[in-house]
Model the fold of this input.
Amino acid sequence: MIRISFTDKEKIDPEALKSVVASKLRVDPGVLRGAVLRKLSLDARKKDDIRYVYGVDIDVANEEKFLRRCRIKNASIVKPVVYEDPGAKLAEAKDDNHRNRPVIVGFGPAGMICAYKLACAGLRPIVLERGSDVDTRTADVEEFFKTGRLCTDSNVQFGEGGAGTFSDGKLNTMIHDNFGRIAHVFDILVEFGADSSIRYINKPHIGTDKLRGIVKALREKVIELGGEVRFNSTFTGFEEKDGAVTAAIVGGSERIECDTLVLATGHSARDTVRMLLSKGIGMERKAFAMGVRVEHPQELISKAMYGADYNKYPAADYKLTFKTAEGRGVYSFCMCPGGVVVNASSQEGMLCVNGMSYSARDEATANSAIVVEIRESDLEGDDILAGMKFQEKLEKAAFDACGGRIPTCYVTDFLEGRETVSLDRRTPNTRGSAEACDLTKVLPTLITDPLREALPAFDRTIKGFAGEDAIMLAVESRTSSPVRILRDEEKLCAKGLKGLYPCGEGAGYAGGITSAAVDGLKVYEKIITKSMKNKMYNRP
Done:
């Protein structure tokens, strides 16, 4: 396989890709046995010459000879990475004999992928999800946005699909993958309804509207394959014997025998973290980040990125980083082009925000988290849960500041030390009510001082970023888990306890939909390998 890279002023129709590539190579289309689009991005560094950047894999005879004559400079022979599924043999055996079925806690990205793969291999997993199915959950969330009445087990954070179901469905990730796991996860998502463009677009996303159908279809397939998905079923504990898991406890009393227990709870299941710590599960503190959402008119961002012809291109995004004078990082996170800011609360008397976009990304506003690095040294004492308690303290302050409405101010007021007394200049685009507020009453100087340094710098990069149309909303606190559950690096089970597999964001091993799903896939591989090694199943 030969990979070529080239640019074009126009976006190429995937159906015409082979003929366009042949034209650029100046060869007959028949020479190409195949052409597959692998990468697509926009190069907007020159506003008067914006170009699409393509990476295409072509299949030709005699690759070495073809490469020597290739008319495109950026060309090289590549060996595509193919995911090797360790569960394929079990799936082929179609063996329903088993001891204890694996139990998975949480049906977010990590839990979904792990459950689906285990079901495909014939292990008939039992999934425990504290929240509701996606249809009920959507109704609960809409009710919360309208009335402020929070269902603590069915909300933006908890329920079928996890927190990502009510965000943007962003799939871009910083993790490196030499085993084809990311591509395999994307193939699964496409199989259940995601657009095939996620396989090649530079910053793939699905959109919260499409995600709801995808997670529902995945759940139905898990059930069809013999698995079980139980909603409104809160995991409250586990039993162990001789250093190994023997049962999962649901709702404080129900006991499910198991020797394989996957913890894919997400980053907001704080009660679960406290329970695990009380039972002696090893954890450590880790760095995280907190801050605000900053919202702008999408037109302002798109013009800054693309220039006068911004309407020709998709809603623009951005990525910004800054280091303060004392070396503290401030950066954008989870940027939502054409999106809204949502009240993402999951605990009574506490408030946090997130960004959400639909697949079309056609809202008139753009928003992004602008967060400040929180170091372990910033936290008092040696309490493992100090970071989580710090998050809760700020979320309570955010709730109290405006009685459960989203605390909001204009960036210009914040930078000039004025209190925003009303939102009559420009109303923020939110799901859940917002109210004018002095954010210095919500956020500590640990966060406000770095923001005051960073925002003017971001304004120099994107003109208007800290201008009259910029709005700040607080508090952005769920960027990642402030703790990590210790696990054996080889077996991926919790240190000191066989059969307990912490994974995904809640365990501190992921930071987004894709990385969480990949971690769930890695845990699946370990479970399958263990199952085959122990001859858990009667295979031919």
